[in-house]
Amino acid sequence: MLTKDLLKYSIRGDRVFPKYIKPVEPHYRALAAELESNFNAFVGRKFRDLNDELRQHKDASDVVFQGFCKLLEDRCTFGEPDEAIEKKRWDWMKAAQELRQSDFENYRDFQLQLEQSFACDFATIESELYGDLAENRAIVSFEMPDDGSLLHRYNLSQIQGLLLRSQKVSITIQSSDVLSRRRLLQKLRFCRLFAEFPDESSKDTLSLVISGPLTIFEQAQSYGLRLCNFFPYVLFFNKWILEAEVRLGQKTVELKVDSSRPIASHYKEFNGYIPEEFKALLDNFNQLSLAARKGWTAEEGRESFNLGRQNYCIPDFTFQHTSGVQRHCELFHRWHKNELKRRLGQMPSEQADTFFFGIAKELLKDPELEEKLAQFQLANVSTFTFRQFPTVKAIMTYLATVKVE
Amino acid sequence: MPIALRYEQGTLTFVPEPGPWIAEMPWFRFDSRTKSWRASAHSYREIVVHAVQHKIAILDEARRYQALPLILKESIVPRDHQRDALVAWRQQQSRGVVSLPTGAGKTILAVLAMVATQRPTLIIVPTIDLLHQWQTILMRYFEGPIGVLGGGMRDLQPLTVATYDSAHIMVESIGHRFGLLVFDECHHLPATQYQMIARGSIAPFRLGLSATVERTDGREDLIYELLGGLCYEGQIRDMVERVLAPYDVVSVQVPLSPEESVAYQKSRATYTQFIRRHRIDFSGPDGWQDFIRKSATLPGGKEAMDAYRDQKRLAQGAEGKLDELWRILQKHRQDRIIVFTQDNAMAYQIGRAMVLPVLTHQTKPKERKLFLEAFRDGSLNVLVTSKVLNEGVDVPEASVGVVISGSGTVREHVQRLGRILRHQDGKRAILYEVISKDTSEYYVNKRRRNHHAYQRPSQVQHTRG
After folding, report:
1. A196 forms bridges with which residues in the sheet?
2. Is A213–B323 a contact, with Cβ atoms under 8 angstroms apart?
3. To the nearest whole percent, how much of chain B has pLDDT over 90?
4. Fold category of B80-234 in CATH
5. Hey, what CATH topology would domain B3-60 get?
6. What's the pTM value of the predicted model, to 2 decimals?
7. Nearest CA to CA, how far is B353 from chain A (Å)?
8. Domain A276-399, CATH among 3.30.750, 3.40.1350, 1.20.1260, 1.10.1660
9. Which of A28, A44, A284, B76 sits 20 to 30 Å CA-CA off B292?
10. B38:A348 CB<8 A
11. What one-character-per-residue DSSP string does B144-161 give?
12. CATH classification code of A163-273
């Protein structure tokens, strides 16, 4: 992350415009490569010496140069200070304390006397006395960035530096990739953030307004760091827009950035896949003559739902009746115990009618879950159980109970 | 099924959703993000009292602590002002802020408040040194382990001391585990991050301690909102000799060397010309921001900013100050002396030149403890520091303070003065202010003297002026 003095932006009217660098700009690519190589060359040596060398660079006063250095410093690990220095410091300090009990016209005379006492040059004492300060730390290792990634990281940090001073962000993502959207919603909980889905969310558009728990009460910026940590996940999508109000000094300005900006995420890409069984179930269902006769078709769930209490979901399947009636199905396998616990008992009544849950029998061996499930069913939310994977028949049995006009 | 009141990430919610009576609870708002009613955790006390008064059956699942029997291992005979402050705090339903000068025994007052409250307590302090100091004091007065959050330690106990930073990071997971919060140096609380500690905690009992509650930005009102109103205030001038050591303030003006003077005048001229040309008004609240913005964007701005830094550095770090400091050290060879600087660079410059111990945020926890112990037992009689000793650290043996450079705020100066005012029989404290002659430091020093701590010191002298 960049400190405030390293942020580059301009303010025009009520808007703030971060200043990016072009990731293909030869000058900055060369500078990044040069600095990366400098940092790498100083592994095993003192950070202060590297700093001294960097200060001599012709671009040293350039904020981009300083920003690169800060980001590269964050990739260094430093050694523990030498304990021998601490011991020597105490010897010198105690000797100096004794010597100060005598009369000296000025402190230079005192230094001369100290030189004689220790039979060493005062310049040596002066330089070694606090030789274990952070600036004198040795660089133990340096994590070399991938080619060109420092420029992206710099651009990302420019935005994060502003998000740090915001309390709420609006994000719109256009993507039909259900798995990535689902992973993004999971990261909300991971980053301890709350979200609201404005009405404009649709099957291929996910709109979120993200903030922290206390944001509805206070005009506080305390969740800025969490918003910064969440933002790189958004960058995995090809099309996105982010809007935020940013507090800069006494002024509040609007930040608006989108996927046309030259920024890439440094996070590990979302992993996982949708197993073949899901597709097979959809195919089987849609080929089932009974389903066709009853007017039902199945498709992959794509709509995003806020079920309350930090339960955000994109159902596994959506079943559509010719009358317009829809039912969304979520499956809970044996490894979804915690997700199911969260979901049970917290289903808002206005959405309870449109959902039904498939639950692995294995999960019902947990008495706590079994009890919660009983209460859940009392609240008129439909469930069915399965062993390995639900069958088309089980789903049709449920759909047969749905009232359609 | 009764409705449960639950703690969730610094807030309170009901599960399942409450009845229409929720409309009578002004602390709750409907949170459309989570489709639930939500209140800030610091409203816990009012919510529970309201529910009891209106016979609303709620199951309190928010509170994760019980009453804690706290018995003193050794008795405390409170001084008059401590007893009065405790009574005043109790009369405000054990909520409120006590303002007492450094050395007047705020820590002991907090111990008495803990005994009176009998609840698990979280004490929040601004520095690692204070963290250790509080832990030592609590271990002296109470049985059982004392938890620590901060400085790389994470041990949560019914009595725990935390730094503001660690408490802020952890408040969402510990905000329901303490019944009493003690904010030491509570003038820090209005900072955006730190407010969250008070807002995200359910503790019904709260005590704020500070020598200087008032803030230049006027945000002390926020402290009173979150902790309770000011319930007791004691002034330095009323406690000198009875509770605090009598003291002198000695201002020493030292001339700049001819070379320093030329460089200072040149930088000062560049800086002031820019200010005048662009009509930057430092008397307004946005003066500094205006200077930063204009120096970053207008022609000549970079030179003006560099000049501003240069003239400040020259005034604060004048060579003559080191000579003067040496004279003071020689004069007070038998005394314990704390030397204060504005920044770490100056502190280490002094430390290196005179081979003195320097205590800054860079000093490792183990060594900072050793420095303070050695200073207390006299094996080291001088400590140089920038800001970490400004607040709260108890060094009663210190009787001489030397301010080589400072920020110019009244708060900082009163705090530094407080370091040397702890009462000891026969002690008379001296605070030296070493100022570069004919520089802006003179005016900054003059402005500071408006504080009441300066209105009636035992003696104020101006020398070499």
Report:
1. A209
2. no
3. 58
4. Rossmann fold (3.40.50)
5. MutS, DNA mismatch repair protein, domain I (3.40.1170)
6. 0.82
7. 7
8. 3.40.1350
9. A28
10. no
11. S--EEEETTEEE--SEEE
12. 3.30.70
